[in-house]
Structures
1.
Amino acid sequence: MYTVADLKKGLKITLDGDPYLVIAFDFAKPGKGQALYRTKMRNMITGSILDRTYRSGETFEPASLEDRKMQFLYREDTHFVFMDNQNYEQYRMGEEAVGDAKNYLIDNLPVDLLLFSDKAIAVDVPNFVNLRVVQTDPWVKGDTSGSDSKPATVETGYVLRVPPFIEEGELIVIDTRTGEYSTRVKG
Amino acid sequence: MNWKLARKAPRLAARAQIIQKIREFFSNRGYLEVDTPVLIPAPAPESHINAVEAGKLYLQTSPELCMKRLLAADYPKVFQICHCWRRGERGSRHLPEFTMLEWYRSNSDYTDLMTETSELLRYIAASLSTNGMVSYKGLKVDLSGKPETLSVRDAFAKYTGTTMEKALEDDEFDLLMTDLIEPRLGNEGPTIIFDYPAEKAALARLKADDSSLAERFELYLAGMEIANAFSELTDPDTQRERFLQEIAYRKKIGAGIYPMPEPFLDELVEMPPAAGIALGVDRLVMFFTNSETID
């Protein structure tokens, strides 16, 4: 149990059954009045922002969140299925909750899954993943058009800009924090 | 070199200039600068103000009681710039140790202080700004004119979906004040809100024609509370009664209980009708130096 004295940026609490992250916090006190604690919180499932002001004496339930090492198994229509490496339990997540991570999810990819009351609410992929290029136009030697990149589609269906010398079938490294091409895997 | 401190040089220079202007303003007007003890046996019992304990004594939460004893001893106009301590207050506009300017004048009421406070702001602005315009966090606040005045009751009617009376009944007065009213005050020029509910002013005189209201006002600049003033209560029996109510409330919420300030109550009978005001110097400096936080 937290009290208003525990409120600070980064605190995770449960509110109306959802986990919230405190993203801004300030102390306020209207002239000679009671102490008030203004918070801005983000719903960790829907991403919506909530402004709430609390008074002394109010209490909060901590959000029971857990990070677990898992691997991506397969996609089933709009759902993604992951497996806990320790106990082989499986977790399903909707496309919306997976977010941009879906661009990088290939079979057996190791990921961190964030669980809230045993429900997967966020997936964290490695900073760099290797993905195979399945479609891109060939490089025309002697092309002097000056274009320094071209579109390429990788095995997850994600489309990004790559240098002109990348060919179909090649493995490339993508920085998942920016979604951009990083380098090619030699050999 | 401590760069965090070194970087504050321009703001500290502005602060020194503001304090110098304050001193000039009051000495020009015949006020006596005083320096009352900061270590005191009994701070005023107020519902939501907590004192820092120092051995068997307390650090002052405000010099109010000491300064009123000076009024009672026939000092008609006194001012003081001093440090005050309030336990547990920390935020972007709160420090547990802060600098307060307080001034008191005999045979005056809160309307006289409304005028005098605006004049003080204009006096400081004249030396620190061009044409009395101050930019603060994207706002342009004009200190050259008269402040906007609004009763607390009208402020509730104007900015909240409820009335002052209903907010008090629902214990939402402070919440609505912070969330809906304060951010709207003082954004173009200074705003004064006046006539607070009697229960929100333990040391103020009630209005002669409406005993549910106290002669108290607050001045706001850019959504920030800068000063709080009253026509002072001078009746010792009523004052004792109010303190007992505040103590009872503090007991109820489990806050610390301070001894009754007996010397103050004894001498209050000799205090002439007077008005007094407390102004947060750090916040005033924040405003004039366009600073995001009080640090």
2.
Amino acid sequence: MAEVPIQSGDDVVRVRQHVRAIATDCGLSLVDQTKLVTAASELARNTLVHGGGGTARVEVATSSRGRTGVKIDFVDDGPGIPDLELALTDGWSSGNGLGLGLSGARRLVDEFELISKPGAGTSVTVVKWSR
Amino acid sequence: MERVPIVKIGQTLFVSIQIDLEDESVVRLQEDLADQLTATGARGVIIDITAVEIVDSFIGRMLTMIGSLSRLFDAETVIVGMRPAVAITLTELGLSMRGVRTALNAEKALEFLNGRI
């Protein structure tokens, strides 16, 4: 397990590197590794830009059916997301991006959980299972 | 922040991305390319992403913007060497990269650019 602080642009790169290393160890295919690392990059950037910084915890997970995978928790104490449904809509953006960060990341992983309340920070948990 | 070097050969600017791209490095690359295009009058830009392991929405958007930007300086940008896993991920992410010209490798990109000059 690795806990990576996200306070700057090179921390986002560091999150990607940790996720890549653990995904390789778990035997994820190259395409699945790439999808997970890309999703992690989107979510780490959100933590930095919208959450004002936070942490990513990367760990190996085991499913009830015995599959292994990689689980990542992104946590920040930022302003939170007022409308979760809207935030997950393709093309909706709070900044000047493309609005593909959250919605795109969700498509790239097998499990996706978003918990957020205005003023109470945001937590996003994603899992990608090996096939 | 690491910077991506730009090399001019003839009428073309070559960029080979060999680092783990952080957002600032891509923004800097865009600015450096704009400077180089005005300074040299180059007609083409080839960006080799063979070594790039992921392209997320930010990096993808910046590459698209470099394409539009170069056109304002009468130059064409060609992205080469995209890994299959990166292409699959970009499609699933929903990033169309519309308006960006791609080629399989630098040689094909150069053939295209030389035909245009």
